[in-house]
Design brief:
about 650 residues, alpha/beta, Helix Hairpins, 4 domains, 7-stranded mixed sheet, 5-stranded mixed sheet, 18 helices, rod-shaped
Length: about 650
């Protein structure tokens, strides 16, 4: 068996092309998803999507009440109503601190700014004495921007109070671009991050071990620039009012049991409305903001229980974003469009919930913007690629269906590109034509299998009988001849159907007709029929297939001879006009029944079975050959008999006529 290298190479290239196309599509969509993920990650500089996802995660995450020793002594509306408007005298502040200290708390954190001397030195001294006597009071440091000059300033307590305190700690929270407080900076300072958060100082004095408070890193910066390090997201224990609280007026009035403050971390601060120390948080519900002292309490609780959320290392963020952005490519190439859409929606919801809960489960946060944008874009991008592949397939099918020589096609109107719907219509028409051809092929095979099988079966039966006398030999010859004619007609028809008009050479019609007539001379002599030739003296040239036209003419003449009685004649004529050439075959037989004429040239028409030797293929072959040459064929009954005419057009006057000498 021979080995065809070219065939193997062609099959290999076809396989490689079919294999590369899906891979290339996946690679293209994958690169686009990675680009979108990276671009959206960089574009979301304000982390708005990250903030929204974090807030969503906080709301769906269960928040059981933690076991905490933090309690707030609140300067609330009742305290202001009893002891007067704010600010209070520092002697009253000293009394409140002394009263709280009597309960023997672990630490007292005061969320009241004492950055100015005030007008009462005695009150300052009383406050200093109370702080020093307690020995466990932490005072706040403010870092704020001057309204007049826009300069960032550090505002610690006045020196005597700072020296008397057990420690200093910065108060403040990071407000995001949407005005919501979600995070804190563990270290801040002007020129260097020297000030810890008040919560860190309180826990250090309370000797509470904490693992989420790293030491500040040395940095080089402008001496007047604010430096912040170690940003952490807060995990609020609940909305405003979730931290245990005692009213300051109840403590001062001795109406609250001091045992509620014993061995606890006590925060003193304002919670009364209108004092300005309120911020919105992810835990804000129904427009109720949270007091600053309660934000400090939440930072204390988060730090105490190691619940501060730190940023995920950038390498992990890039790896997660890249991997999760490409996950949809696992199912999109395999699913149908609706299933792919449903899977993409489910995938987006899974990602949204997972990234929202990720900080609360792992303790790390990152921006999910790139992942979510990629998840939303995966299905539209893949659908676009799928439509693009379908469009290219339609274009290829259209190109395959178009004639090979567009120059030979008359296009009176301007050629315009088809839109997508029009291309689909063309392909649908082609598919309908293919189905029609399939049905015709099945019909052909059914007809041929019956008509060829019958004569061959009869011949085989006669051979098997062993009786080959003269009569049987004659019958056997007839059956074999009929089977041979059927096979020959079938092959001729197949060749006619496969003919390509654009490759027809120039042929001379007189020679073709002379050759066809000569081929049937013996048959006509045997039937005692005269063949009459009425051909022009000059040559007539057209573009056509010589053998197909000759075979079609032989079929017509053979048919005419078969139906012409002995002594009759068959006349073959050839004429030419300015637009066409016509040749006719006229017999002197009985003609064609009127009910048979309309279907005479149909495929496998049984209407001609009454004519001797008809198989249903001959006249259909004639019609096929003529139509391949863009001509027409028809039959009529005349007074003498049946007349068959073939007319072929002269395209653009290009036929060549040479006068005989």
């Amino acid at each position: 068996m021979g080995f065809n290298v070219g065939s193997v190479r062609a099959r290999s290239l076809t396989w490689l092309k079919n294999w590369l196309t899906p891979v290339q599509n996946q690679m293209l969509v994958g690169l686009m998803l990675l680009f979108l993920a990276a671009a959206s990650f960089v574009a979301d500089r304000d982390a708005r999507i990250q903030h929204l996802v974090y807030d969503f995660g906080w709301r769906i995450m269960p928040h059981p009440a933690p076991s905490t020793d933090v309690i707030i002594v609140a300067i609330d509306e009742a305290s202001l109503a009893r002891y007067g408007r704010w600010p209070w005298s520092r002697s009253l502040d000293a009394e409140l601190i002394s009263r709280v200290c009597q309960a023997n708390p672990k630490v007292i954190g005061v969320d009241i700014a004492f950055t100015e001397q005030g007008g009462d030195p005695a009150a300052n001294q009383a406050l200093r004495d109370a702080i020093a006597a307690c020995g466990k009071v932490v005072l706040p440091v403010l870092i704020e921007t001057s309204r007049d000059e826009g300069q960032v300033r550090e505002l610690p307590p006045i020196p005597e109070l700072a020296q008397a305190s057990a420690g200093l700690g910065r108060i403040g929270v990071v407000l995001d671009s949407d005005g919501i407080a979600r995070s804190i900076n563990l270290w801040e300072g002007i020129g260097a991050p020297v000030w810890p958060l008040m919560a860190q100082t309180i826990l250090a004095i309370a000797k509470t071990p904490i693992t989420s408070s790293p030491r500040p890193k040395s940095t080089l910066s402008h001496p007047y620039q604010l430096v912040a390090q170690d940003n952490r997201l807060l995990d609020f224990i609940g909305p405003a009012g979730s931290v245990p609280t005692l009213s300051a007026q109840a403590v001062l009035a001795h109406t609250a049991p001091l045992t509620a403050l014993t061995h606890r971390i006590v925060l003193i601060g304002a919670t009364a409305a209108g004092m300005g120390d309120f911020v919105s948080t992810p835990a804000t519900t129904q427009g109720a903001p949270m007091a600053g002292v309660e934000v400090i309490a939440n930072s204390l609780i988060s730090m105490e229980h190691n619940q501060l959320k730190q940023p995920l290392p950038i390498a992990w963020v890039l790896a997660l974003t890249g991997i999760l952005a490409l996950i949809p490519l696992l199912w999109l190439p395999r699913f149908m469009p609706l299933a792919g859409l449903i899977a993409s929606i489910i995938w987006f919801m899974v990602l949204l919930i997972t990234t929202a809960l990720f900080p609360f489960i792992t303790g790390y946060y990152f921006s999910p913007t790139g992942i979510l944008v990629a998840a939303l874009s995966a299905y539209p991008l893949w659908s676009w690629r799928r439509l693009e592949v379908a469009r290219k397939h339609l274009n290829n099918e259209l190109l395959r269906l178009l004639p090979y020589q567009l120059a030979a096609v008359h296009t009176p109107n301007e050629i315009k590109p088809l839109n997508f719907e029009q291309r689909i219509e063309v392909i649908q028409e082609a598919q309908a034509r293919m189905q029609q051809l399939q049905a015709e092929r099945d019909e052909m095979l059914d007809f041929i299998s019956h008509d060829i099988r019958v004569p061959l079966a009869n011949a085989a039966q006669q051979l098997a009988s062993g009786e080959l006398n003269d009569l049987n030999r004659s019958r056997l010859a007839v059956q074999l001849k009929r089977g041979h004619e059927l096979a020959q007609n079938y092959l001729s028809l197949s060749r006619a159907l496969a003919a390509k008009p654009d490759s027809f050479p120039e042929i001379e019609l007189n020679s073709m007709l002379e050759q066809a007539i000569d081929a049937l001379y013996d048959l006509a002599q045997a039937q005692q029929v005269t063949l009459v030739r009425r051909l022009p003296a000059h040559d007539i040239w057209i573009k056509g297939d010589f053998s197909l036209l000759e075979r079609a003419t032989i079929n017509l003449i053979s048919n005419a001879v078969s139906f012409t009685p002995a002594g009759g004649q068959v006349v073959i004529t050839l004429t030419q006009s300015a637009q066409a050439v016509v040749w006719c075959v006229q017999d002197t037989g009985p003609g064609v029944p009127d009910d048979v004429l309309p279907r005479l040239f149909q495929r496998f028409g049984r209407g001609t079975s009454h004519r001797a030797g008809s198989t249903g293929l001959g006249l259909y072959f004639v019609r096929t050959v003529v139509e391949k040459h863009q001509g027409t064929v028809h039959a009529i009954n005349t007074e003498q008999g049946a007349k068959f005419s073939i007319s072929l057009p002269l395209q653009n006057g290009e036929s060549i006529t040479n006068q005989a000498n």
